[in-house]
TrEMBL record:
Signal peptide: none annotated. It comes from the Eukaryota. Residues 1-90 form the Phosphatidylinositol transfer protein N-terminal domain. It comes from Pandion haliaetus. Residues 109-131 have a biased composition (Low complexity). This is PITC1 protein. Residues 109-157 are annotated as: Disordered.
Length: 157
């Protein structure tokens, strides 16, 4: 699956040498918008950067595989692609199964007699809203861990 060594039999594409971006005409460009919000003071930047790096790595692997597997999908019609997706999803579900969510949030309050912690221990709120001390101040702009837009060079120039 390494583009340095792969050569397509059907399309003739492949064996991308160092500097191929400067010498080849682009065939396809893929943009992905990934938004990460982790608004916890002291950890926000690191966690958001880590998630962006992991997502980028996963997408790079996927694009490399799509390039290396071009002979398998190059001649497919859209109906064949949809059937392949359906069969793959069915095989994956059969192999790993379908799992219900492990965590659920409920607004039902429990009587204090059913709690296992002592009454002096703080209780975990059953709300998705962050506590006031963790919320981002409204008068301060948020840090950006990734650029808003990405400008690519014009291939015609």
């Amino acid at each position: 699956q390494d583009p340095k060594y792969f050569k397509s039999q059907k399309t003739g594409r492949g064996q991308l040498k160092e500097g191929w971006r400067e010498t080849h005409q682009p065939i396809m460009c893929s943009y992905k918008l990934v938004t990460v919000k982790f608004e916890v003071w002291g950890l926000q930047t690191r966690v958001e950067q880590f998630v962006h790096k992991v997502v980028r790595d996963i997408l790079l692997i996927g694009h490399r595989q799509a390039f290396a597997w071009v002979d398998e999908w190059y001649d497919m019609t859209m109906d064949e692609v949809r059937e392949f997706e359906r069969a793959t999803q069915e095989a994956t579900n059969k192999k790993i199964g379908i799992f219900p969510p492990a965590i659920s949030i409920s607004n039902i309050s429990m009587p204090s007699s059913t709690r296992s912690a002592p009454s002096s221990a703080p209780s975990t709120p059953l709300s998705t809203d962050a506590p006031e001390f963790l919320t981002v101040p409204k008068d301060r702009p948020r840090k950006k861990s990734a650029p808003e837009t990405l400008t690519l060079p014009d291939p015609a120039k």
